[in-house]
Design brief:
By secondary structure, this protein is mainly alpha-helical. It has two domains: 6-201 and 312-341, HUPs (Rossmann fold), CATH 3.40.50; 219-307, Tyrosyl-Transfer RNA Synthetase, CATH 1.10.240.10. It has helices spanning 19-32, 44-47, 54-71, 88-97, 102-106, 109-115, 124-138, 152-168, 229-237, 254-267, 271-278, 283-310, 312-341; strands at 6-11, 37-42, 78-82, 144-146, 192-194. Strands 1-2-3 form a three-stranded parallel β-sheet. Helix 1 links the parallel strand 1 and strand 2. Helix 3 (54-71) packs across helix 12 and helix 10 packs across helix 12 (283-310). The longest helix is centred in the C-terminal third of the chain and has 30 residues, at 312-341. The chain is globular. The protein starts with 5 loop residues before the first strand and ends in a 5-residue tail after the last helix.
């Protein structure tokens, strides 16, 4: 019997999930459940790298898990849980912190970008964020990680740390590949990136040169999955295009390309096919049609999410089962790490 490869991915619950999260990540997770051993969770530990309102974070975490399920993630097919429910994530992150160096963390582009917003008061969590992300991945012996271009650098660091620790703490008998004893295998699986060509980088509707973000200074730039039909329509109709008037076959400005990409991903059609329908038409047609497609595709998710959230007891039960299953896997790996690095057996 061939074991399935493990795929792992997660989204921060620091705010409501937006259409960029959905098209770039969650929508792609659903078919993975049929072919891979899937690990999906809400990364609330990552969320507190910047200050959060406690009640909002708690509710957003419930909402994130409910949204995963509304989008098609099945707790019976995938491991589904909340990051902070599994303390092994933080424990392994400390071990990795002690095997990383300041130079490689200082080179992280996201740290450079985000730290500029904090002046001299830069949270340490922003600096060490990639090490917690590495722990998330390595803890489950992950083979494949769906990542966008902005996360590739973090995955490269994860790979470097895995290889560094595999070399520092080798197996007892590397030649005995058939052994089922964890002590005879490399400590960590070295993960590979899994980059989706469609939906990997959805841009802000108001600043199409920047990735869509929950923290967009202009709230009209981000479409959330729980936005009402009217809110969705309003945001798309106000989307920034360019100084032209109609869609061109030769070149598309970033704002136009973003609308075409969103529609292509929602309809699961090739970009060029969608483009072909609008060549020579005014931008107004594109905006209205994209809004209508978004309303049609997002409304069932919004309604299903609300339905799941009504039964809080059932949701709590799903999270409890996910926590126990995740901890069982995580503890096994962490115990092997502790043994290899010389900690007294616990």
């Amino acid at each position: 019997m061939t074991l399935k490869k493990t795929v792992l991915s997660a989204v921060q619950p620091s705010n409501q999930i937006h259409i960029g999260n959905y098209l770039g990540a969650i929508k792609n997770w659903v078919p993975y459940q049929e072919h891979y051993d899937c690990v999906f969770f809400a990364v609330d530990l990552h969320s507190i790298t910047v200050r959060q309102d406690p009640e909002a974070l708690r509710e957003n975490t419930y909402h994130a898990i409910a949204t995963y399920m509304a989008c098609g993630i099945d707790p019976k097919k995938a491991l589904l849980f909340v990051q902070s429910h599994v303390p092994e994530h933080a424990e392994l992150a400390w071990i990795l912190t002690c095997h990383a160096n300041m130079g490689e963390l200082s080179r992280m582009t996201q740290f450079k970008d985000k730290s500029q917003k904090h002046g001299t008061q830069i949270p340490i969590g922003l600096f060490t964020y990639p090490l917690l992300m590495a722990a998330d991945i390595l803890l489950y012996q992950t083979h494949l990680v769906p990542v966008g271009e902005d996360q590739k650098q973090h995955l490269e660091l994860t790979r470097d740390l895995a290889e560094r620790m595999n070399n520092a703490y080798p197996s007892k008998d590397a030649s005995n590949d058939n052994s089922k004893d964890d002590s005879s295998r490399p400590l960590f699986v070295v993960p590979e990136p899994m980059i989706s060509k469609a939906g990997g980088r959805i841009m802000s509707l108001q600043d199409p040169e920047s990735k869509m973000s929950k923290s967009d200074p202009n709230p009209a730039g981000c479409v959330f999955l729980n936005d009402s039909d009217k809110e969705i329509e309003k945001k798309f109709k106000r989307a920034v295009t360019d100084s032209g008037t109609e869609v061109s076959a030769e070149t598309q400005a970033p704002g136009v390309r973003n609308l075409l990409e969103i529609q292509a991903c929602l309809l699961e059609e090739p970009y060029d096919a969608v483009l072909g329908r609008y060549v020579g038409k005014g931008y107004g047609y594109l905006k209205v049609d994209t809004a209508n497609v978004a309303v049609e595709k997002l409304k069932p998710i919004r309604e299903k999410t609300a339905e799941i959230l009504k039964d809080r007891a059932q949701l709590e039960q799903i999270l409890a089962e996910g926590r126990e299953a995740a901890r069982a896997r995580a503890e096994k790996l962490l115990n092997e790490v502790y043994k290899r690095i010389g900690f007294v057996r616990r």
